[in-house]
Structure formats: structure tokens, C-alpha cells
């Protein structure tokens, strides 16, 4: 395997994922205060349906960005696997396998929202969404992501300050995620990891590609 090519591709993917996270966090937002284009917790049915039926064009732009985010972070997971495979093959396999599941659950969740937005645009506003199935899929997505980063974090090389920092972040992420299951007010803050993690991943991959 040409690891240099893998690291170069993963570096680009981390940069793209970071840009997508910025778009999703600060650009593609519902005009109504307190309303989410992608609800992460069960709530009133009207709040779930309002962005789908009132802002379908915005929904499609947001989920186009989210779809690119899914593709990008999966490529980042491939780079993480390449980093730790020789150190801990089993943990690397668990991390990549859970990462693939994360992307599958995420893409499935996105597919619901894209389908609903298209339905509204085609003159059939949604009235009976697949709830709570969508929330279950979203929860499985996050649990798979926690496993992914836990596995890679446990196997990560800690040879310098960057390695130790990345290890700490990857291990804090699943601990914070599990805590947010009990403390639901923390759920919206799960995504903050990507604003910090993706630039660090990109820098790591850049260094590995240069070394290779």
C-alpha cells in the first residue's frame, strides 16, 4: 500500500470535512431561532416538520454539504487506520469497521431528510415522518462514531506533543458522548470535536505524507 497517497487523500478529506462542518454549523441554519434542520433529539412533531415543509431548498443545500462531510470523514478514518494498523491491527480494524458503520448510519439518516425535502418540493408535504426510527439511526451513528475514535485513540502513537494531544481528544470524545446520553443538554456540543479534530488530522496527515 502506498501510504503517501493515502495520507495525501486523507489530508484533503480532513480539510473538506472541516469546511463542511463550518458550513453546517454557521451557514446552513434554519431562519427560525431554536429550530434545527436536523433535530438530534425527540421533540414536537411540528418542530421536526417545519424546516422540511417550509425550507426544503435550504434543507437540500444543507444535506448536500452533510453528504460531502460523510464522504470526507470516512476518508479521514482510512487515514487513521493507516496510521495505527502496524501498531495495533485489531484496534485499527475495529476503528475502521465502526467508522464505516458511522458513515452508513449517517447516510441513511441524511437520506430520510433529503427524501422529505424533495417530497415537499414536488408538492407532497410530509405529514407522517418515520419517527422514532430516524432518531434511533442518529443514535446508532453517534455510538459508532464513539467506538471509532475510542479504538483509534487507544492505538494512536504518542511520540510527541501532537500525538498526545490527538490521543487525548480522541479518547475524550467518546467519554463526552456517553456522558451526553445522560445529560441531554450536552448533545448539541458533540460536533465541536470536529472543529478541533479535523485541522489536527489534516496536519498529522500532511506530516506523514512528507515523511513518506
Q: Indicate the multimeric state.
A: single chain
Written as H for each helix and E for each strand, in order along the chain, the element string is HHHHHHH
The total of helices stands at 7
Global shape: elongated
In which range does the helix fraction lie?
over 70%
Mean pLDDT: 95
What is the strand tally? Answer: 0
Report how far the terminal alpha carbons are from each other. 12 Å
What would you report as the Rg, rounded to the nearest angstrom? 18 Å
Helix-strand makeup class: mainly alpha
Biggest sheet architecture: none
- The residue ranges in which pLDDT falls below 50 over 5 or more consecutive positions are none
- The structural domain count equals 1
Share of β-strand residues: under 5%
Key attributes of the depicted protein:
212 residues; mainly alpha
Which helices and strands appear, and what pairs or packs with what?
Elements (H helix, E strand, L loop, with lengths): L2 H25 L17 H10 L1 H29 L4 H33 L11 H23 L5 H22 L9 H20 L1
Amino acid at each position: 500500500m502506498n501510504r503517501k497517497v493515502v495520507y495525501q487523500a486523507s489530508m484533503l478529506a480532513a480539510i473538506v470535512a472541516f469546511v463542511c462542518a463550518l458550513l453546517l454549523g454557521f451557514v446552513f441554519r434554519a431562519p427560525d431561532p431554536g429550530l434545527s434542520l436536523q433535530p438530534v433529539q425527540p421533540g414536537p412533531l411540528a418542530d421536526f416538520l417545519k424546516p422540511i415543509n417550509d425550507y426544503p431548498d435550504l434543507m437540500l443545500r444543507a444535506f448536500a454539504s452533510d453528504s460531502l462531510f460523510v464522504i470526507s470523514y470516512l476518508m479521514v478514518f482510512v487515514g487513521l487506520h493507516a496510521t495505527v494498523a502496524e501498531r495495533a491491527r485489531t484496534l485499527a480494524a475495529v476503528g475502521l469497521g465502526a467508522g464505516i458503520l458511522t458513515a452508513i448510519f449517517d447516510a441513511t439518516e441524511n437520506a430520510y431528510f433529503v427524501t422529505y425535502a424533495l417530497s415537499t418540493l414536488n408538492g407532497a408535504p410530509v405529514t407522517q415522518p418515520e419517527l422514532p426510527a430516524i432518531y434511533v439511526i442518529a443514535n446508532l451513528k453517534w455510538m459508532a462514531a464513539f467506538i471509532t475514535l475510542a479504538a483509534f485513540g487507544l492505538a494512536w502513537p504518542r511520540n510527541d506533543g501532537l500525538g498526545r494531544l490527538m490521543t487525548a481528544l480522541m479518547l475524550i470524545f467518546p467519554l463526552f458522548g456517553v456522558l451526553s446520553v445522560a445529560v441531554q443538554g450536552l448533545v448539541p456540543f458533540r460536533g465541536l470535536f470536529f472543529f478541533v479534530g479535523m485541522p489536527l488530522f489534516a496536519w498529522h496527515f500532511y506530516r506523514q505524507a512528507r515523511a513518506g
